Amino acid sequence: MAKNLQELVALMPGCEVRGDINLTITAVTYDSRQAKPGSLFICLTGSKVDGHDYIAQARAGGAVAVLVEKEVSVEPGMTVIKVSDTRAAMQAITPFFFDYPSQKLRVIGVTGTNGKTTTTHLIRSILMQAGYKVGLIGTIHTLIGDRTLPVKNTTPDVVDLQGLLAEMVAAGMDYAVMEVSSHALALNRTAGCEFDIGVFTNITRDHLDFHITFENYIDAKAELFRLVGRPDNVKTGKSAVINTDDPAAAHMLREVTYRAITYGVQDGADLTARNINIQADGAKFEAVTTRGIIPLALQITGLFNVYNVLAAIGVALAEGIEPDVVKTALEAFRSVPGRFEIVDAGQPFTVIVDYAHTPDGLENILKTARQFAQRRIIAVFGCGGDRDRTKRPIMGRLAAEYADVVVATSDNPRTEDPVSILKEIEVGIREGLKPGKSYEVIVDRRQAIERALSLAEPQDIVIIAGKGHETYQILKDKTIPFDDREVAREIIREMR
Ligand SMILES: CC(=O)N[C@H]1[C@@H](OP(=O)(O)OP(=O)(O)OC[C@H]2O[C@@H](n3ccc(=O)[nH]c3=O)[C@H](O)[C@@H]2O)O[C@H](CO)[C@@H](O)[C@@H]1O[C@H](C)C(=O)N[C@@H](C)C(=O)N[C@H](CCC(=O)O)C(=O)O
Ligand SMILES: Nc1ncnc2c1ncn2[C@@H]1O[C@H](COP(=O)(O)OP(=O)(O)OP(=O)(O)O)[C@@H](O)[C@H]1O
Ligand SMILES: N[C@H](CCC[C@H](N)C(=O)O)C(=O)O
Ligand SMILES: [Mg+2]
């Protein structure tokens, strides 16, 4: 990928130029550490540091030009382009730099508080079963063909996102299926991304630290449906797949000026589920669709996964995939890492690691376990630092209401004091605790898991929630390796 800097400058009307713009730009980056010979380094004023302070580092890496929104001094030979807003300029030039890759793929965006990762993986399985090549972008990883790439954000920023889509085009992908977080929509990380299908899973309390009000949060999600409908997105066969059991569905539907497919387990949706049977080893139900009834025996469980599966079926039907292909793919789908993942190290009780990190997620997972629990449910969980504080007491209350034994612990404390986070959770636990029940607070996550496992008796269920697939723990001054699944396995082996 290469462009002449003059072509990029033409996309930034009103910019001030200092130096030569007849230069070949071979890469764009907003991170000085990624700068290579021929790069344009975009300086962003961040929440932690200021990209304008890293120009020398970018220059050392080989950057030939810099895009700034502040006065800077640079070494001779480096071109400076000054705009009023570097983030907006980055959004304007990046899709062009990568030759508008989303126009060459069918792009499916999935938004919602919970279920995005699961639903994107389900959609990918169905599309692959139908014979398509499918790329995926989301919380756990980016998948391009048989390559797995690590990720920093659920939805990457515009440079990374457009770059990944371009790689998908180069690798011959037909589809890109991606999670679209509310942060990404609010920060316009999806600039230049032309979606074919938008999916709305649900919206419940989360991220109010960022969006401040629930209304803003809903409206950020609704942006996905405005993006699909943009008049300059000239794709054909645009659709919205919307969970109408969620009260915010109306807000999404208001934005839909193209085909809408509604789903839900309540009557009235285009796509529904009946005869739902939730068991420990999988959910069975009949999907009632416009293409007939699809009986399903899944290997994933929980009513919430019935919703995720309906969303995936909605996309498949919108894309004209045959019901028998949908059935084969869904029944073969085993699991998503860290989502209701069973840890079996030969212990006489069940251990489930799950990524529930919102009140709704935690309630769902505990309710699901309750549906087939033969004995007690022991819940280990915490709440992340530098994230929505309002969810802490609510998650505490829900854990106390639904579990028999609660061990509250740290999630990723980040820059916060883990003890203070736990105090906020504890307020809710006390509220939800029924007489005769108890809870424990153990700051160290390993010790908390150890305690929960030592309390477990045959046939109990231990649920370790919040970190799912994560293989690290983010503390104030460092990130340490930490994988709930590995830790649980090690402890069980040591207990023998
Ligand atoms: C609040 C937020 O969204 N922050 C994002 C933002 O970082 P920032 O503005 O704080 O950046 P910064 O660290 O201050 O750095 C400023 C600039 O200096 C540059 N820099 C920095 C250091 C250096 O040595 N050289 C250098 O050039 C940085 O690359 C950056 O351009 O821009 C970064 C690059 O795009 C993001 O990775 C980062 O996400 C952080 C990691 C984050 O935690 N975001 C969360 C809240 C988030 O976005 N979550 C949603 C998912 C939510 C969900 O699924 O529920 C997501 O989509 O991931
Ligand atoms: N449709 C759903 N409704 C409610 N809860 C769900 C749903 N699907 C999954 N969950 C719960 O939420 C957790 C996270 O699921 P998943 O990773 O699919 O969601 P996500 O939207 O990708 O999350 P994130 O915002 O972190 O990217 C699961 O481990 C499960 O506990
Ligand atoms: N995408 C979510 C993930 C939360 C996972 C949880 N383990 C935490 O660290 O809070 C977020 O960034 O808020
Ligand atoms: Mg996700």
Automatic annotation (TrEMBL):
Domain named Mur ligase C-terminal: residues: 338-468
Record GO terms (molecular function): ATP binding; magnesium ion binding; tetrahydrofolylpolyglutamate synthase activity; UDP-N-acetylmuramoylalanyl-D-glutamate-2,6-diaminopimelate ligase activity
InterPro entries for this protein: Folylpolyglutamate_synth_CS (IPR018109), Mur-like_cat_sf (IPR036565), Mur_ligase_C (IPR004101), Mur_ligase_C_dom_sf (IPR036615), Mur_ligase_cen (IPR013221), Mur_ligase_N (IPR000713), MurE/MurF_N (IPR035911), UDP-N-AcMur-Glu-dNH2Pim_ligase (IPR005761)
Domain Mur ligase N-terminal catalytic residue range list: 24-93
Entry's Gene Ontology BP terms: cell division; cell wall organization; peptidoglycan biosynthetic process; regulation of cell shape
Chain ranges of the Mur ligase central domain: 110-316
EC number: 6.3.2.13
The UniProt record lists the keyword Ribosomal protein: no
Binding of ATP, residues: 112-118
Keywords: ATP-binding, Cell cycle, Cell division, Cell shape, Cell wall biogenesis/degradation, Cytoplasm, Ligase, Magnesium, Nucleotide-binding, Peptidoglycan synthesis
GO CC annotation: cytoplasm
Class of the enzyme per the UniProt entry, highest EC level: ligase
Motif Meso-diaminopimelate recognition motif boundaries: 411-414
Pfam families recorded: Mur_ligase (PF01225), Mur_ligase_C (PF02875), Mur_ligase_M (PF08245)
Residue list for modification N6-carboxylysine: 221
Keyword hit for tRNA processing: no
Post-translation changes: Carboxylation is probably crucial for Mg(2+) binding and, consequently, for the gamma-phosphate positioning of ATP.
Catalytic activity field: UDP-N-acetyl-alpha-D-muramoyl-L-alanyl-D-glutamate + meso-2,6-diaminopimelate + ATP = UDP-N-acetyl-alpha-D-muramoyl-L-alanyl-gamma-D-glutamyl-meso-2,6-diaminopimelate + ADP + phosphate + H(+)
Location(s) in or outside the cell: Cytoplasm
Binding sites annotated in the UniProt record for UDP-N-acetyl-alpha-D-muramoyl-L-alanyl-D-glutamate: 32, 153-155, 181, 189
Pathway, per record: Cell wall biogenesis; peptidoglycan biosynthesis
SUPFAM superfamilies: MurD-like peptide ligases, catalytic domain (SSF53623), MurD-like peptide ligases, peptide-binding domain (SSF53244), MurE/MurF N-terminal domain (SSF63418)
Cited HAMAP family: MurE
Function: Catalyzes the addition of meso-diaminopimelic acid to the nucleotide precursor UDP-N-acetylmuramoyl-L-alanyl-D-glutamate (UMAG) in the biosynthesis of bacterial cell-wall peptidoglycan.
Similarity comment: family membership: Belongs to the MurCDEF family. MurE subfamily.
Protein name (record): UDP-N-acetylmuramoyl-L-alanyl-D-glutamate--2,6-diaminopimelate ligase
Organism: Thermosinus carboxydivorans Nor1
The encoding gene: murE
